[in-house]
Design a protein that fits this description.
single chain, alpha/beta, seven-stranded mixed beta sheet, 26% helix, S-adenosyl-L-methionine, methyltransferase activity, methyltransferase
Length: 202
């Protein structure tokens, strides 16, 4: 699923997502003090805009130029342009800056398993000491392979996989499956989320 795939997916509809922030993000971040946030796979910007409106300075990254253009338009309408930096990048190739973010939010982002965990370690390294990693995915029980799109859910990291890779520099605060707090995306049957929230100690 490269940049062309995602651009074509976004261009296939005038709006792919609701524009609302993800429920896991709202639940887990509301009580955190605002700081620097990295929104991984920001899409059309719902999460990034919510973070910006709640005082965060956001670096919002996506591989799709189409998604980023829509997100920037939404940011202008919400008057938070100065609080969000929209960045086109493939995090499998270009890691974010290390020790830079008080929050790294990964919401339903298809992060492919790698033998050396290069992309994942780039995201973990991006969390500043004292900062939070928040990783949410659809429950595997709600996902089915889609061979026609080359998608197999077993090819991607799940929150539990990541929890098992964290060392003593981290403390796991939440590692669980829970019912969704928001309606499932149109055409899907997602009923549960798997959620990892961890804090980097040093």
């Amino acid at each position: 699923m490269d940049a062309q795939f995602w651009d074509e997916m976004y261009r296939s509809r005038d709006q792919v997502f609701s524009g609302d922030p993800n429920g896991v993000l709202v639940t887990e971040v509301t009580d955190l003090p605002p700081g620097q946030a990295l929104d991984v796979g920001c899409g059309e910007g719902g999460d990034a805009l919510w973070l910006a409106l709640h005082g965060w300075q956001v670096t919002a990254v996506d591989i799709s130029a189409t998604a980023l253009q829509r997100a920037a338009t939404a940011a202008a309408a919400a008057d938070v342009e100065g609080r969000v930096a929209w960045t086109r990048a493939d995090l499998n190739i270009t890691p974010p800056p290390a020790d830079a973010f008080d929050l790294v939010s990964v919401q339903y982002f298809p992060l492919a398993l790698q033998p050396d965990h290069t992309a994942l370690r780039g995201l973990l390294n991006a969390v500043a000491p004292g900062g939070t990693l928040l990783f949410a995915s659809h429950d595997l029980a709600d996902l089915s392979p889609r061979p026609e799109q080359g998608f197999d859910p077993g090819d991607y990291y799940q929150p539990g996989d990541i929890a098992g890779l964290l060392d003593r520099d981290w403390t796991v605060l939440i590692n669980e499956t829970r019912p969704r707090t928001a309606p499932a995306p149109a055409g899907t049957h997602h009923t549960h989320d798997t959620v990892l929230r961890a804090q980097r100690l040093r």
